[in-house]
């Protein structure tokens, strides 16, 4: 049975369904815009989001980041393609790591473009064990790596608890 025949206005037509790219769907565009508005509103109170905030098109944040934590350190890796080291600002304030920058694009006079350019900011709440005095950052091939050592007393506070069955 062809399920298209169940739709009353499609019974007499044999027209294939038109598929839109998800990025072009108006409901998803509205969702992204509402996320952006809420991000900007809460940013005005200087409240960092737990998983970062975004001025870019994706709903979860730009730049894309990876957060790794070991017993000795916390590592944040951010993908920043097309940027140079001078375009990036990294700061750590009260256990909040903030990556700011601006991607400047050449005005090509394009009629349509999916390339992203403009200012961005991404904040990540770190563990309170992070040592703000022992932070290093490196930028290579469009990838920013920030390594924050953990305080020595934080490592000794971890207590393993045996699970009995």
Automatic annotation (TrEMBL):
InterPro entries from the UniProt entry: A-crystallin/Hsp20_dom, HSP20-like_chaperone, Small_HSP
Domain SHSP, first and last residues per copy: 56-165
Gene3D superfamilies with a match to the protein in the record: 2.60.40.790
Where are the annotated coiled coils located?
Answer: none
Q: Which family does it belong to?
A: Belongs to the small heat shock protein (HSP20) family.
**Record's protein name:** Molecular chaperone Hsp20
Q: Which organism is it from?
A: Burkholderia multivorans
């Amino acid at each position: 049975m062809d399920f298209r025949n169940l739709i009353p206005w499609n019974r007499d037509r044999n027209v294939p369904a038109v598929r839109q790219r998800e990025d072009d769907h108006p409901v998803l565009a509205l969702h992204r815009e509402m996320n952006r508005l809420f991000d900007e509103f809460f940013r005005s109170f200087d409240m960092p989001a737990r998983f970062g905030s975004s001025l870019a098109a994706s709903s979860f944040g730009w730049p894309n980041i990876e957060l790794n934590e070991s017993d000795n350190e916390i590592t944040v890796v951010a993908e920043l393609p097309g940027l140079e080291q001078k375009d990036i600002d990294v700061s750590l304030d009260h256990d909040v790591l903030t990556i700011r920058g601006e991607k400047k694009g050449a005005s090509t006079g394009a009629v349509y473009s999916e390339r992203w350019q403009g200012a961005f900011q991404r904040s990540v709440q770190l563990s309170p064990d992070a040592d703000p005095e022992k932070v290093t950052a490196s930028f290579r091939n469009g990838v920013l790596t920030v390594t924050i050592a953990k305080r020595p007393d934080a490592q000794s506070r971890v207590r393993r608890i045996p699970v009995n069955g």
